[in-house]
Structure formats: structure tokens, C-alpha cells
Specification:
The protein is of the alpha/beta class and 322 residues long. The protein has helices at 23-31, 44-48, 54-57, 76-88, 103-106, 118-130, 152-162, 185-193, 207-217, 226-230, 234-242, 252-268, 272-287, 294-299, 306-315, 317-320, and strands at residues 13-14, 36-38, 42-43, 67-72, 93-98, 137-144, 166-173, 198-200, 221-224. The chain contains 16 helices and 9 strands. The structure holds flavin mononucleotide. Residues 15-20, 40-41, 70, 97, 99-100, 140, 170, 182, 201-204, 225-227 line the site of flavin mononucleotide.
Length: 322
């Protein structure tokens, strides 16, 4: 059985999110209806050389399934060796990052830099597809490197022919970073040109964005990224909206329950030090826009222990009014 498929609008994914889509966050999203999750991007070279921190990025457990491991790299030898090593450890689904525009990644020829040379990317893709089980290798792209070079249709069509399992597209150019807007009309066009599943990413901030994106583009599936960081409950809200139920926005008590759950998950998986650091960036996102939480968002940044985190939560008026 291939548990990643079918790729449908009713099985929303959690996007790869460097610094965030770790095991506890993925498990939290899964409790909210996330069907498939993707790891943070992992350097193929780093994996082979045993770079510090790489092992933590690969922490998983039985409930964290199906899980896609996202790799970045530009050299076939390292990517193939990584996949072989990961398959031996039991990982089954893989994605190649062809969209990251961060300088550190692009400088190595990886991420969105691969879009500058579609020939190289497509040769790489052919061997990666052959290195995994059928349908288990995906590619995450942008429209191209820059406005004068849209390459997504050529890449999409050739990946489809190569036997790739799916394509994810964030419809911005690499030079845009996160500026401007994700132009979903390119997703609609790509969908008409390929036969394999297309997964949408880009400006899916709220459940209603997901609904509109599916309606406007006809894509097979979608993944929530910043939308999930601001509200892991986006999966549940989106799925309820798919069933025609009225949309409800995030509620303070829900966010509190999620933070508490997340604290527990970090501890349970032996990730306390990392978990406390994550709270400093996640809590302000989760409570953004919720009245009465300004002090909590300020305080959390200074937390050094779980005790500090729990104290800050307890002192929040939202908490005391429950
Ligand atoms: C903090 C952060 C980390 C990200 N890390 C990755 C990554 O590791 N790999 C990747 O392919 N995309 C990464 N992305 C891009 C997202 O997966 C997604 O494609 C992008 O944010 C657009 O979706 P959104 O507008 O709905 O957030 C990251 C985005 C953010 C905001």
C-alpha cells in the first residue's frame, strides 16, 4: 500500500518548513487533520557527512505517517546515497527541494538554483525516480528563477513523463522570495498540462484560501505552510469548510490547548531544549491577532525553561478567563 496517495483536496498536507516542521509540530498538525507531512529540508551532503543536527531532523514515530523526507542538493551522488541510506532506515517517500531561494542554499546550486538549468534538474530527477518505489518521489518547484524564464511547464511535463509521483508548485519566481503574491493561475495551467498529481503551495493563509485555490485551479491537493504556523487548526477548519460547514476563526482557548499539547510532545520526544526555543517563535505566531495576548507574546521570547513557558501561559488573561 502507498499511503501517501491518493493526493486529493480532502487530504491536506503540511508543507516543508525549515525550523518548524519537526516531529512534534507534525504530530500536532496530524491531530488537526493533516494527512501527509513533509520534513524540514535536509541537506543530502549533510546527511552523508553526518552533520550535527541532521539526525534530529529525521526523528519520527509510528503516528508520523505518511511522512515525506525533503532533501536538498545538486549532486546526484549525494542525493542517491542519501536516498539509499534513508530507505534502509525505513523512509519511503521523498521530495527534492527545487524552490528554496535562500542564499545559503542557492549558493550550493541547490533549491531554486536548479531551475536555472532545467536539463540538469531533469537528469537528476530521472535517477532519483528510479531510486525509489513507484510514485514515491516528488519535486517542489517555483515558476522559474526569474520572470524572464518561466520553466515550470517544461519541468512539470518532463517530470510527469519520468514517472515522478507528484509535483508541488509555489507559483512565485525565486527572485521574488516571498514578495508579491502567489499567482494561482499558473497552478491551473500546469494542472491542464500534466497527468500526475499537482499539489498547490503559496498564500494559503486561511482555510478559505484553500477552498478558493482548489476551486480556481482544479489542482489535486494542497499544502499549508505559513497558514499552519499561524494556526495548526487550519487543517480542521479547511476540512469542515470542504464539507460545507461555516468557517470559524481560531479561538484563544484552542491556541492555548495546542501550545500545551506541543510542549508535551517536545518533552515526550526528548526535544526539550529545542522545544523551548521553538516556543519563543511559535507562540507569538499562534496568538497573533488574539486580544489580551500582547504580554504573553512579549514574555515568551525570554523563556528559558518549560516552567517559564507555563508561567507565561498561566499569566495570560486568556488563560485565567477559562
Ligand atoms: C519558515 C519557512 C520555512 C520554509 N522551509 C521550506 C523548506 O524547508 N522547504 C521548502 O521546499 N519550502 C520551504 N518553505 C516554503 C513553504 O513550504 C511554502 O512553499 C511557502 O511558504 C508558500 O506557502 P504559503 O504562502 O502558504 O506559506 C518555507 C517557508 C517558510 C515560511
Amino acid at each position: 500500500m502507498n499511503f501517501l496517495h491518493p493526493i486529493t483536496p480532502d487530504r491536506p498536507w503540511l508543507a516543508p518548513l525549515a525550523g518548524y516542521s519537526d516531529l512534534p509540530f507534525r504530530l500536532l498538525c496530524r491531530t488537526q487533520g493533516c494527512a501527509v507531512a513533509v520534513t524540514e529540508m535536509i541537506s543530502a551532503k549533510g546527511l552523508i557527512y553526518g552533520s550535527p543536527g541532521t539526525r534530529e531532523l529525521l526523528l519520527t514515530c509510528r503516528q508520523d505517517d505518511p511522512l515525506v523526507v525533503q532533501l536538498f542538493g545538486a549532486e546526484e551522488s549525494f542525493l542517491l546515497a542519501s536516498i539509499a541510506q534513508l530507505r534502509q532506515s525505513g523512509f519511503r517517500y521523498f521530495d527534492l527541494n527545487c524552490g528554496c531561494s535562500v542564499r545559503k542554499v542557492v549558493r550550493t546550486g541547490s533549491g531554486a538554483a536548479l531551475l536555472k538549468d532545467p536539463g540538469h534538474l531533469l537528469r537528476l530527477a530521472k535517477s532519483l525516480v528510479q531510486a525509489v518505489e513507484p510514485g514515491c518521489m516528488g519535486f517542489k518547484i517555483r515558476l522559474g528563477w526569474s520572470h524572464d524564464q518561466p520553466v515550470y511547464l517544461r519541468i512539470g511535463q518532463e517530470l510527469d513523463q519520468s514517472g515522478a509521483g507528484w509535483i508541488t508548485m509555489h507559483p512565485r519566481y525565486a527572485t521574488q522570495g516571498f514578495t508579491g503574491h502567489a499567482d494561482w493561475k499558473h497552478l491551473a495551467l500546469l494542472k491542464t498540462k500534466v497527468g500526475f498529481p499537482v499539489v498547490a503551495s503559496g498564500d494559503l493563509f486561511h482555510a478559505e484560501d484553500g477552498i478558493r485555490c482548489i476551486e480556481q485551479t482544479g489542482v489535486d491537493g494542497l499544502m499549508f505552510a505559513r497558514g499552519a504556523l499561524n494556526d495548526p487548526g487550519i487543517f480542521k477548519r479547511y476540512l469542515l469548510a470542504r464539507q460545507g460547514q461555516p468557517l470559524v476563526s481560531k479561538k484563544p482557548h484552542e491556541m492555548l490547548a495546542m501550545v500545551r499539547k506541543l510542549c508535551g510532545l517536545y518533552t515526550e520526544h526528548g526535544m526539550d531544549r529545542l522545544g523551548i526555543l521553538k516556543m519563543r517563535t511559535l507562540v507569538p505566531r499562534l496568538f497573533k491577532g488574539i486580544p489580551g495576548t500582547k504580554e504573553l507574546r512579549r514574555e515568551i521570547v525570554f523563556c528559558k525553561s518549560w516552567e517559564d513557558v507555563l508561567c507565561a501561559l498561566q499569566a495570560c488573561p486568556v488563560s485565567t478567563s477559562l
